[in-house]
Amino acid sequence: MVTVPTGEGRPLATFTHAPGIQDPAYRSVWPMRMKEAGCAAVIDGLHRVGPDYFIHVPDSYGAPVVRHFQEDPAVRCFSVAREEEGIGIAAGLSMGGKTGVLFYQDVGLGNSMVALTTFAMAYHMPMLVFAIRRGGFGEFNSAVHTFSEHAIDMVESMGLKAFVLDYRVPTEEWPQAIQRADEYTRLTHRPVVVFLNLKD
After folding, report:
1. Is residue 24 part of a domain?
2. Is the residue at 115 inside a domain?
3. Cα distance between residue 99 and residue 91, in whole Å
4. CATH number, domain containing residue 60
5. For the segment 147-179, what is each residue's pLDDT rounded down to a tens digit?
6. CA R_g for the chain
């Protein structure tokens, strides 16, 4: 059984399988606003990847995704206080033959860059990091633009691969893109950062 959020003021929907974003039953309960469509696509993509652990720093934009995996008995979900703490845990899981994905805001990349580059990348650890975009369209907090608008360039300048999923990529294509990002991190044995715009 898979339970997915259907938006504020509406009940959760339960499916007997992990529904794809194109699933008619899924669409019947899911109004496709950007945030909700994006969260649904991320959930779909992560079910295709099949992580053992979902490690996150609490976030309101990605709350539907976090809530989903908190309620998924097949995935162990927990929060960490800082992003680099999650990287250390994900690295240990990788060495132990388990898979963990990281889920936090792109402003947290500043905290995690040393751990990603001098530890995870240097020691060839596959790691899928989801960075929720701040700044740009739909942003309400003027304090985050200065960092967030340069986050992708910063990641790539450090030699890390970045993929961007936002309004330029139809949400129907996000699940496959997430699956391919996971394949890429395993193929190259290094961290991959997937930037997600989950703002309406």
Report:
1. no
2. yes
3. 9
4. 3.40.50.970
5. 778 889 999 999 999 999 998 999 999 999 999
6. 16
If one counts the domains in the chain, the total is 1
Report how far residue 82's alpha carbon sits from residue 178's, in angstroms, rounded to the nearest whole number: 24
The set of residues, in sequence order, having a beta carbon less than 8 Å from that of 67 and lying 6+ positions away, is: 5
Q: What pTM, to 2 d.p., does this model score?
A: 0.82
Residue 28 has pLDDT above 60, yes or no: no
Max Cα–Cα distance, the chain, nearest Å: 46
pLDDT of the residue at 114? 94
Assign residue 159 a region: left if phi > 0, alpha if psi is -120 to 50, beta otherwise?
left
15: tokens are 């499916």
Beta bridge partner(s), residue 81: none
Note whether residue 76 is domain-resident: yes
Only one residue has tokens 């206080």, namely: 81
**What are the φ/ψ torsions at residue 130 (nearest 5 degrees)?**
-100, 120
Q: Which domain holds residue 175?
A: 33-196
Q: How far is CA 187 from CA 128, 174, 190, in A?
A: 12, 20, 8
Is the alpha carbon torsion for 82, 83, 88, 90 positive or negative? Answer: positive
Say how far apart CA 107 and CA 151 lie, in whole Å. 8
Q: Note whether residue 135 is domain-resident.
A: yes
Q: CB-based contacts of 181: which residues, under 8 Å, 6+ apart?
A: 128, 163, 192, 194
